[in-house]
Design goal:
The protein is mainly α. Helix content is about 60%, strand content about 5%. The chain contains 10 helices and 6 strands, in the order αααααββαααααββββ. The chain has a two-stranded antiparallel sheet with strand order 1-2. It has a two-stranded antiparallel ribbon with strand order 3-6. The longest helix has about 35 residues. The two termini are about 45 Å apart.
Length: about 375
């Protein structure tokens, strides 16, 4: 697997049972993240392709969904990198530098940096919606997403460009940038991680302060959505930033301690690695819990049921259709979700005149009626 001869400094050639068990734990959590993220990515991709069956407009234009989709894709790449832990455990050694070490280090860095950028992008997008009650244009949004991926790929690729193909070596129980390239570790990774971790919290603080000010009497609120729905969306998005910080801060702190020549024990990195690779399944669970709150404005509802030709003609002839007072029960709300809609019509009977008033004439009897319809719409939102 390597064109270099393995050395004790760059490799772990004799793995003890504690390290073996730690790698298995990291690999199992990476597998869980891989399954969760790949499943949700597949489901959302399917809904993006078949949106006409479920929605009135493409969910690919829903910017909140697209940003979370990118975050899940970043988590997916990170989980792929940590799946190589099974390879090291089966070989009972971690050989670096090597091709496997390069792939693992590159995937983990790309996944971590890109997920950090999209956590910040979600924060900025949410606060922008709250403050200005609008989103970016579709072209501008696609350009922003492409730029984020471009920056993440650039930072990840600069390490092998500057330090060579085998710049990734064993760093604890997985592969990372060599310890003698501390400046690259800091400038290409940790500096950005710390900026985004604390920057996201600062951005959300601004958003919550804006919402707090908007609640004061006499304050003109610019958004079309309700304060309650915006509060729910902001709290939901904040959960992603908090989860990312909790998952990544222990590992980043441990690496910074190593750079300052205070090496934490391997058990600390086992714990930090387990948290780190759990980002995928944690974000997937968060999406399942918060999806209704995230789609407070942009998500289109299901396609309305179409009346048959006979129903349309019958309605036009009668001219007496009206909505019942219960029509809006569980109907479409501000968040775009639909439930049960009841529609009724008035039945009008025009009876023939009584015999006492018109004994010598036969008047036809007209009966106009339209049976009540009941439409049940299942909640099948993404």
């Amino acid at each position: 697997m390597s064109s270099y001869e393995a050395s004790p400094e760059d490799s772990l050639l004799h793995m003890d049972n504690a390290t073996f068990n730690g790698l298995l734990a990291i690999g199992c959590l990476a597998t869980l993240s891989f399954i969760f993220t790949s499943g949700l990515l597949g489901f959302i991709s399917w809904r993006m392709v078949t949106w006409q069956k479920f929605y009135t407009s493409s969910i690919g234009h829903n910017q909140s969904i697209v940003l979370i989709y990118q975050l899940l894709l970043a988590d997916f790449l990170q989980s792929l990198g940590f799946l190589i832990s099974f390879y090291w455990a089966s070989a009972r050694e971690i050989v670096g530098p090597s091709d496997a070490c390069f792939v693992q280090g590159w995937l983990i860095q790309l996944g971590d940096v890109s997920s950090a950028f999209f956590v910040l992008a979600i924060a900025l997008h949410t606060v922008y919606q709250v403050a200005f009650s609008k989103s970016l244009s579709h072209r501008g949004f696609l350009a922003a997403v492409s730029s984020v991926w471009g920056l993440a790929l650039l930072l990840t690729s600069l390490a092998p460009i500057i330090g060579g193909r085998y710049i990734f070596e064993r760093a604890g129980v997985w592969c990372w940038i060599k310890s003698d390239h501390e400046s690259l570790r800091l400038l290409l990774h940790y500096l950005w991680i710390f900026i985004i971790e604390f920057g996201s919290i600062a951005v959300y603080t601004v958003g919550f302060v804006y919402l707090y000010q908007a609640k004061k009497p006499g304050t003109q609120f610019r958004s079309d959505a309700s304060l309650e729905s915006l509060n729910k969306a902001s709290r939901a998005m904040l959960a992603y930033a908090i989860a990312y910080t909790v998952m990544t801060l222990p590992l980043a702190a441990g690496r910074m301690a190593s750079m300052s020549h205070r090496q934490p024990p391997d058990s600390y990195f086992f714990f930090a690695g387990c948290l780190f690779t759990s980002s995928g399944w944690v974000d997937t669970v968060l999406y399942a819990i918060t999806r209704r709150s995230l789609l407070f404005k942009e998500m289109p509802g299901p396609r309305p049921a179409r009346l048959s030709l006979s129903d349309q003609l019958g309605t036009r002839r009668s001219g007496f259709t009206r909505q019942n007072s219960t029509d809006n029960i569980l109907d479409e709300d501000a968040s775009g979700f639909s439930g049960i809609k009841l529609e009724t019509t008035v039945k009008v009977d025009v009876e023939s005149p009584t015999s006492s008033m018109a004994p010598n004439h036969d008047y036809p009897s007209h009966n106009y009626s339209v049976s009540a319809k009941r439409h049940t719409i299942r909640d099948e939102m993404v």
